[in-house]
Amino acid sequence: MINKQVNSIEEALEGIESGMTLAIGGFGLSGIPENLIQGLVDKKVDKLTCISNNAGVDNFGLGLLLQNRQIKKMIASYVGENAEFERQMLSGELEVELIPQGTLATRLMAAGYGMPAIFTPAGIGTEVAEGKEIRKFTFHSIEKEYLMEYAFEPDYAIVKAWKGDTMGNLVYRGTAANFNHPTAMCGKFTIAEVEELVEPGELDPNHIHTPGVYINRIIQGKNYEKRIENKTVQPKQ
């Protein structure tokens, strides 16, 4: 059996350098790799391109990397809860590529499946399609245009799971499952942190979401804050 466990955040992040492209798991603030993100802050790598559904919030998650100016480009789907992200984007300090959520997930999965590109109707007729190849296909007896999108090729993928074993098999819980699995699939090298690390054989094979073949290193996390996002509405007049 291959033991992929490492015992420090520094060891887990070994090899990540400034200027690299990273795919980061999580959905909103659910299931984000809190310990590994803090490790990137401490490592002081910069000029990063980050692929993630969200961009964190101010002072938490990817927001920590943004406030330290460690991210050069953000490729994301939903970024509406981070004031520093907005400021950097509007000032031209941060390069931003916004992608439809389904397209983002599928481009992550395509990398894991070994597919260099996908075709999707999402984005046709919008600025998302500018400069990209468009083809017509007949599908379910309907002919329409599809946009070609390339699979992501991040240098590293970083994910967080509820449980994992030392061989890298992962189990997610709740909303954390949304983007962590496709993110784990897409990395040339994937690092996982887990709330509970167990020995091989202790996880029910029927409950494993990401098989260990996709994981290169795994570490037991600690001190999870697990913030939740709050909806703020204007008080009644």
Quick rundown:
It is built from six helices and eleven strands. Helix 5 packs across helix 6 (about 175-185).
Describe the structure.
The structure is a single chain. The chain folds into two domains: 9-101 and 152-220, Glutaconate Coenzyme A-transferase (3-Layer(aba) Sandwich), CATH 3.40.1080; 118-150, no CATH class. It is 22% helix and 26% strand. It has six helices and eleven strands. Strands 1, 2, 3, 4, 8, 9, 10 and 11 form an eight-stranded mixed sheet that branches. It has a three-stranded antiparallel sheet with strand order 5-7-6. It starts with 8 loop residues before the first helix and ends in a 17-residue tail after the last strand.
* Uncertain ranges: none
Count of the domains: 2
Largest sheet, described in full? Answer: 8 strands, mixed
* Strand-residue proportion: 25-35%
> In the CATH scheme, what's the topology name of the largest domain?
Glutaconate Coenzyme A-transferase
Helix percent reads: 10-25%
Quote the average pLDDT: 93
SSE order: HEHEHEHEHEEEEEHEE
Structural class: alpha/beta
Over the alpha carbons, how many angstroms does the gyration radius reach? Answer: 18 Å
In terms of topology, how is this protein built?
Elements: H1 9-12, E1 21-24, H2 34-43, E2 48-51, H3 62-67, E3 71-76, H4 83-91, E4 95-98, H5 101-113, E5 117-120, E6 134-139, E7 142-150, E8 156-165, E9 170-171, H6 177-186, E10 190-198, E11 217-220
Parallel strand pairs: 1-2, 1-8, 2-3, 3-4, 8-10, 10-11
Antiparallel strand pairs: 5-7, 6-7, 8-9
